Amino acid sequence: MKNILIVILLASIVVLASILGLMLQDTAQPNADLDRDMTRVRAEITEARRESEKYSGGLVKSFIDLRLSVLQATDAMLDQKRRSLFWRISLTYPNVASAVRVAPDQELTEILDELRQAEDRANQARAEAARYSGGLVQSMSLARVAIDDVAISQLRLKFYSAKHGFPILAINAPKADDSATKGKIVQDRDGL
Question: Taking the model in full, what pTM does it have?
Fold first, then answer.
């Protein structure tokens, strides 16, 4: 009887040690990957803030601030993922439209190709804006640069969301026959 108790005790120690080993398993790879992504996004946030401080208002500042908001949302998403890995919390995002999944390498490559094309367009726009020293033409060129930078930040959000399995909620446009999109015809005196 004593030998059976010792065997049961040793077996339970081995099982508990295995469970503890699995719980303390090194998650350095996902954390290193997340840390690298977070470092890049935070550097872009710093650059966007620096650019935003150059302007006191206007269209270009609005687009820079929009880009900054997208980058901050991306940073928050990555930070949330990092913390969930640290505390070993499984994050789930219920979305009735589609299941949340980590994208395959081919899809990530397609997003990266799209991102490179957007960066090329932004660099061309920067070169165009640098040709001018002021005025309306430079303002329009800088607006184009800001718009391209917003597109880049949105593509980065799309990439990191696909890479780490976060959903991006789609905004559906109203249907043409939707009664909410139709206006009400009123007489001039009832217009106000």
Answer: 0.59
